[in-house]
Amino acid sequence: MLLENSTLCGHGLKGHSIRNRWNNKEWNELACLFIEDEKQSENVRYLLERYQKEICNGIIICKKELHINTIKIYISDCYKEYVGQLKEQIKQQLGELGYEIIVVTNKKHFEKEVFQELTLVHHAETMLALSRSLNKDDIPHKVITISGDVKNPGIYEIPYGITLRQIIDEYGKGIKSDKEIKFVQVGGNTGAVFTEEELDTTFEYENLMGYGTMIETAKIEVFPSDTCIVQWAVDKMLYNSKETCGKCVYCREGIYQLYKIMKDATEGKGRDGDIELSIELSETMKTGTLCDFGKSASNPLYTSLHKFRDEFDKHIDRKVCATLSCLAYANLYIDPNACDGCGACMDCPEKAIKGGEKLIHVIDVKACEKCGRCEAICSKKAVKRYGSIKPQLPTEPVEVGSFAAGGLDEKKGLGLGRRRRKSE
Predict the structure, then answer these.
(1) Among 119, 207, 386, 420, whose Cα sits 20 to 30 Å from the Cα of 392?
(2) Which residues does the UniProt record annotate as the domain 4Fe-4S ferredoxin-type (predicted)?
(3) What CATH architecture is 18-132?
(4) Neighbours of 220 (CB within 10 A)
């Protein structure tokens, strides 16, 4: 066999040795996957744009080595514009017979069709690595997406063995904001959380899987120090709850219950035992679900619970969000130095904002329901948040530019009559 001494691993979920995989049984069919959710990384688009010829070479090697006559190529519907190019490339290299290109519109139905007992399933990137492996000087690379709070986000081919920190610094060009890195998620929406102290972990299958992540979706997303890990986990669990096929009860119900528990934690409704329950439920899902998605769907929450336990405790026990990301634990105010009196925020459902033309607006905290509408609509970003310490603010609307916190010439506000006369 051509790969008798090869150490090449597959580029899918578990990074199994290709040699061991091929020797496992007599294969009747090869399935080459260009499958991906474009909302996550678009690594497949990168492959389709640059390496169609090399991927086809890998398919030919696999076909000849294993004497496989049936080849099915699956491509996500979001990349269907490449089907014509791919057909032409395959025709040139493989001829017109023995292959089929299938556009996948429903990933859940596709998984039932493709993962059959005698079907050898490989990602397109594995076929690329197979083609390159014939060159003895080739250094194995992985196509990854770097996103989040980095200066140079994008898709890169990185060599195995360098650290996560090197990837962020050398390819992502470091963090974009002036904040420190709080954590990094590796592996898309089911990937694990790595703290800043863990960034010296090398990018290798064994290492990353040891931390509880899988890199079918090779994405590294960087988050700064002002990220609320609890709210972040809520968003991840909500997304993953929509991706389950629903076949496994543990997966279908488990992810949604994890979302609800964490959602309560961000809204001041957290209860004693919620963290322990979430950990137990996550561990049950890992052992009680059938597919790799179900086993890894709780990874974002599970790993963040272990690494940022104190932050979850503060949300549930003390009702505190240190980053003020959770509105339930913050109050809104209008910065008198930023407000230009435009009036856009005064369309408040609770009528909690007082103001007028060219007057600094004021939020009545008692009437405010913290819907966040004013914060979202303010083009000047004048609506801000505070926690236990309230900033010095005018008690009533005053002229734009007239308020000086703590100054002797500070204006406490115009009386109702004066405001009316001024507006006239």
Answers:
(1) 420
(2) 330-358, 359-388
(3) 3-Layer(aba) Sandwich (3.40)
(4) 28
